[in-house]
Design goal:
There is one protein chain. This protein is of the alpha/beta class. The protein has a single domain, classed as Aldolase class I (TIM Barrel, Alpha-Beta Barrel), CATH 3.20.20. Helix content is 27%, strand content 16%. It is built from seven helices and eleven strands. It has helices at 47-59, 78-86, 102-114, 130-137, 141-154, 172-182, 266-274; strands at residues 6-7, 14-18, 64-68, 90-95, 119-124, 160-164, 190-193, 227-231, 234-236, 248-250, 261-262. Strands 7-6-5-4-3-2-8-9-10 form a nine-stranded mixed β-sheet, with helices on one face. It has a two-stranded antiparallel sheet with strand order 1-11. The relative contact order is 0.18.
């Protein structure tokens, strides 16, 4: 990969834990890592491995931790792991919003109250209306996710609705805000991500970055210059490319992965073109 441009490693601002690997109760048509309810091609993260990574991240000065999958609320140790994360840094859980219960929401609210760091819950919706969303995520998913948004908001957790821009319409952001206001959400929070050419949307684009594309561009602004992703099979620079052998930086400790990351994938071109980040910012 000598001809492939790299992103420098600057500092470990964020760590992503792919808790359930590709295990999920849904099979969304555009899923970044082709997650689903079948035998996961990327295994769930063992609790002991996750705790070791959290401890390493703490030592390295991490400021944000993200828990993802798959569906992270399917992990049997989600609450104790979340408690451990919140002892270290601001923590976000990314969920499809279809497995939330009142008891789980109560537990999350209790963890948030007990921590000096913030707890964010990002709930995925891909359209502000049920028919369009459910074509992508499955029948009934819109209603269940909307209920989760209301359940979390009622407990003061102020969820962030996160959507992939599958429609390409210019008013998507405002339509989501209008939906949330209509649901009684006083402080609607929305994050829109582009479609990345990976997972089930891998055929979306074949464009890859070259050194000439990056001439005059500040590579330290890329997410992969400040973040690392922990999975059951190693450490990656990017949560979008987690599990792809070419993207693996090490199959060992987090410390070893603090080096330049190759910008080899078409998804890297999407980040460069759109300025996208998977983080909450």
């Amino acid at each position: 990969m000598s001809a492939v441009p790299n992103a420098p490693f600057v500092a470990l601002s964020a760590v992503w834990l792919v808790l359930t690997g590709t295990l999920c109760n849904l099979r969304c048509t555009h899923c970044l890592n082709a997650s689903g309810p079948d035998e996961p091609w990327l295994a769930p993260l063992d609790g002991a491995v996750a705790r070791r990574a959290i401890a390493q991240a703490e030592r390295l000065g991490v400021r944000e931790i993200y828990l993802t999958g798959g569906e992270p609320f399917l992990h049997r140790e989600i609450l104790p792991l979340l408690e451990r994360c919140l002892a270290v840094a601001a923590t976000t859980v990314l969920t499809n919003g279809t497995v939330m219960t009142e008891a789980l929401a109560d537990a999350l609210a209790a963890l948030a109250r007990a921590s000096r760091y913030s707890l964010e819950i990002r709930v995925s919706l891909d359209a502000p209306d049920a028919p369009a969303n459910d074509r992508v995520r499955g029948a009934g998913t819109w209603q269940r996710a909307v209920k989760t948004v209301q359940t979390l908001d009622a407990r003061g957790l102020l969820p962030i609705v996160t959507a992939t821009d599958i429609s390409g319409e210019s008013d998507t952001y405002e339509r989501f805000r209008a939906l949330l206001r209509g649901l009684g959400i006083a402080k609607p929070r929305v994050k829109i991500l582009p479609v990345f050419p990976v997972g089930r949307a891998a055929a979306a684009s074949g464009v890859r970055l070259s050194e000439s594309d990056l001439e005059g561009f500040d590579r330290t602004t890329l997410q992969c210059a400040h973040a690392r992703t922990i999975t059951a099979d190693g450490v990656y620079a990017c949560p979008i490319l987690a599990g792809l052998p070419e993207a693996r930086l090490t199959d060992g400790d987090l410390d070893v992965a603090l080096r330049p990351a190759p910008l080899f994938h078409a998804a890297c071109a999407t980040c460069h073109r759109t300025g996208a980040t998977c983080r909450n910012a």
